[in-house]
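User: Please look over both lines:
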Amino acid sequence: MKSISGNWGKVLYVGLVVSASVLLYACSFASKTEKNRKAPVAQTVNYNYFSTFQVAKGDVNKTVVEYLNYVLSGGSSLKFSKDNAIISNAYVKVGDYVKKGDLLLECYTGELNIEKLEADVDKYNAEISYYTSMCDIEEKRRSIKQRYGRAYDSSDYDEYNRLLEISRQQLNVSTAKLEEAKEQLEGCRIYADIDGTVTYIATTSERKKLNRNETAITLSDEMGYFACSTKNVRLFKLDEVYDLVYFYAPKIRRGQQEVEIDRKTIKVRCFSIEPVADNSNTYEIRFHLETDNDTDFTGDLSASITIVTESAENVLYIPKTSVIQSEDEAVVYVQDDNGERKLKKVEVGVANTDIIEIKEGLELGETVLTNRDSSDNKK
């Protein structure tokens, strides 16, 4: 047998060493992989993030809250509803105190003559009354003539009837003109929209006319008022009385214990609903105090009016955060006495930011899962 030379021996030796190293590494990797594959994976749920709530019964109210400011200055800036207005009659002067509904100003109406149109209506009413009575007299004369077999000349009766019909037609035309003129006149008049003091009246002339966006007269509300700007104008009505809640925010320094806020309720009446600008869907709504109140409403004041838009009385309810809703259904997690939890389908109703009505699917006293703040939910 032929012996292996020195160089070939070295090459063979190195090859055996590398092969052994690769084999040992592969065995070691496989062992670790198998070990990792067989190791159990433990997953737990931290229920500290959840709490339970027992289905309760009571009223659920859906509300809208509007926040208000107290306004001391200002009042009302009133304008004519026509362009190129020239004040013809001023029934008040600066400094006068006026009541809501008082006539303040009139502007020149051009050829509009209400007195003449009213006189025409009166004239035609008088003519109708006269011709009607003459027709009645002729009717009686004809009846008497017929009773005694005498001939009756109906020419006077026919003439009175003709004149009566003409007067009626003229009355209809005059009445329509008068109503149209009165409607135009209303656009040339300004009435007080609040109780207050006249603080400004514009000066007008042929060279200085007022457009419909220019102030003709201003009133100052000496009592002050609450006001809010909102798009929910349909929730409010003129002369309606509302409960307004107010409080003064306490000044809390860092590290100081929170102070309980003293909220108070007063009655206010809506006296003005006006758009904040032409063609705007946002309205400024103003409120007067309904009764005398000595409170100084200036300072760090917070005030709000809460209006119930939908309500359900004496119904089952749970925290709103307990309900998982989709387009098709609503479900909740319920928990039995053994602590086991399962999904349950429910039918919901009226809801607010805190709680939601349960129409079907749950019973009074059942336990549902919710977040940790469930105890703070309010109706």
Helices lie at 6-38, 114-147, 155-186. The first strand starts at residue 50 and ends at 54. The two ends are 103 Å apart (CA to CA). Residues 48-61+311-376 form a domain with the conserved putative lor/sdh protein from methanococcus maripaludis s2 fold fold (CATH 2.40.420.20).
